[in-house]
Design the sequence.
């Protein structure tokens, strides 16, 4: 019976790998929960995913779009039924205007869950002037950092650009709250 379970787990692992889903032995994945008995475990770093334990192998699986994992009863559900949305905080650093023909360089921000040291990964941040005109959009990296340069030949008035910019995360309905921060723009 044990060899059949191992064969099934190996077959499932290969199927998940073919689909591009991460399969990690529990012993080699210190950031994932350790698998003991077969079942589902929460993934602490992002509850849009859960860990399926099969014969000691941790398989990270996504919840359906718009859902999060509920540890009890071990299913994906609507966020508002599982927990309140997690508050986020964003910071914005200084940027430089390299002349109206060359654009704004170094727009950047860092997005985190409130009070958490880790950044929020893979979400869009929109950079606009304080008056709301779009400068550029970027996606956060694994540290929560996002940055971009506004395109050359801006048609935005100089005085509006020099008033600064805003970095805005729109939030993810029911999962993460929206947040925004102001940054400065100086002449190069």
Sequence:
């Amino acid at each position: 019976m044990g060899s059949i379970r191992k064969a099934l787990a190996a077959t499932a692992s290969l199927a998940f790998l073919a689909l591009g889903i991460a399969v990690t032995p529990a012993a080699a994945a210190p950031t994932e929960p350790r698998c003991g008995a077969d079942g589902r475990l929460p993934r602490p770093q992002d509850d849009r995913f859960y860990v399926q334990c099969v014969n000691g192998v941790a398989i990270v699986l996504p919840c359906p779009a718009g859902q999060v994992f509920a540890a009890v009863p071990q299913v994906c559900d609507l966020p508002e039924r599982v927990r309140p949305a997690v508050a986020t905080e964003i910071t914005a650093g200084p940027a430089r205007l390299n002349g109206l023909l060359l654009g704004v360089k170094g727009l950047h921000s860092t997005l985190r869950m409130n009070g958490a040291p880790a950044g929020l990964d893979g979400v869009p941040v929109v950079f606009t002037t304080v008056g709301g005109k779009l400068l550029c959009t970027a996606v956060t990296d694994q540290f929560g950092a996002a940055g971009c340069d506004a395109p050359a030949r801006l048609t935005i008035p100089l005085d509006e650009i020099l008033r600064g910019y805003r970095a805005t995360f729109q939030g993810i309905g029911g999962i993460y709250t929206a947040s925004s921060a102001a940054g400065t723009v100086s002449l190069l």
Q: What stands out?
A: DSSP finds three helices and 16 strands in the chain. The longest strand covers residues 107-113. The longest helix spans residues 2-18.
